[in-house]
Amino acid sequence: MLIENVDILVIGAGPSGSVAASYLHKKGVNVKVVEKTKFPRIVVGESLIPRVMDHFAEADLFSSLDQLGFQKKPGARFIRGNDICIFDFSNKFSEGWDWTWQIPRADFDLAIANEMIKKGVDLEFESEVTHIEFQGTESITTVIDKNKQEKKIRAKFLIDASGYGRVLPRLLKLDAASKLSPHSAIFSHIKDVRRPNGIEGTQISFDILETKVWLWVIPFSNENTSVGIVGPTNFIEALSTNNSAKEALEKAISLSDFYINRFGNLPFEFAPIKLSNYSISVSKMFGDGYVLTGNSTEFLDPVFSSGVCFATESGMLAAKLAIKQINGQEVNWQKEYSDYMNKGIDVFTTYIQEWYTGNLQELFFHQPENPDVKRKICSVLAGYVWDDENPFVKKHDKVIRNMAHLIKMEKDNK
């Protein structure tokens, strides 16, 4: 049986695996990437946040992506009836990028893959991992390729960036329950033939239909717009009578006073995709000879577009630490990786939980606005969730709840 030998094997060619592999290749590491699917393929995660731009730049992917003309995203808008809250990434507390992209992931991920291949990264599509045997910190991975041929890949270290495929969590039984309540989503793309001119036509928006239910609208530069509904699973399931994702998404659009005229009665570009009870976690992020990155570790909730940010943050960090390990340097994976990633995950988890309690929405829509508070929240929404200089990061577990309580007391006293 054919056995390949590499320094580092990366499972998955999405943003996490691509950033990791591109960085490793840049540093002269013998890296191989295996991807189960064939690109392009449709996945969720079409709205990025500024922190990811740091990772694309460091992995030498930014320039090639910037040439493709993806829709620029300078901020985000939240709508609640007649109330509007707009966050501008150029007006935030933390230093960092003040814009990012809104992307059809099928095109975006394919563009990254093509750039990696162009740079010389060994990327193999339609190759499914069926078994992994660890021998200390080395591993032997069994793969079936697109020609149904079985082969083995020996690696000094393994990065699992398989996303929803969750290769190692499945093989090693690492799945764990999420801290978040069960939510589901349905989305598709629509040819945006009624798109308004100017910023209104290109602005990403979140339309709150109920406290725990919201519609996303993500316009792309290719004249399509991604439209999705998110809410508690029982609410999403009740949107259709026969478990039809198409009927449910059509009903969700009809509930939006803001967007019914723009998207009502327009056909979907592909059959709407349903993601049921999407939040998930793992019991541990690393072990002897491997590390989990991106959605292989934790998927939270799409409300603040944190998924790709955590994917690229973890992919880049995993690559840097893996280089140290294969070079014989000591790596404290708990402190340098797991604790670090969990710190950011904990911040975003708090914001997601407080969004669904309604507390964060109180801060978003409170009038008059507090510019200082808004700048600090904006930094979190931009992905700078490791900045302890920001009290809305450092005290995330208390500050939102306490401020929302004060706002409600103020309302009650009027």
UniProtKB/TrEMBL annotation:
Gene Ontology MF terms: FAD binding
Domain of life: Bacteria
Residue span, FAD-binding domain: 6-165
Chain ranges passing through the membrane: none
Family matches, as Gene3D superfamilies: FAD/NAD(P)-binding domain
One Pfam family linked to the record: FAD_binding_3
UniProt xrefs under SUPFAM superfamilies: FAD/NAD(P)-binding domain (SSF51905)
InterPro entries: FAD-bd, FAD/NAD-bd_sf, Flavin-dep_Halogenase_NPB
Protein name: FAD-dependent oxidoreductase
Species name: Myroides pelagicus
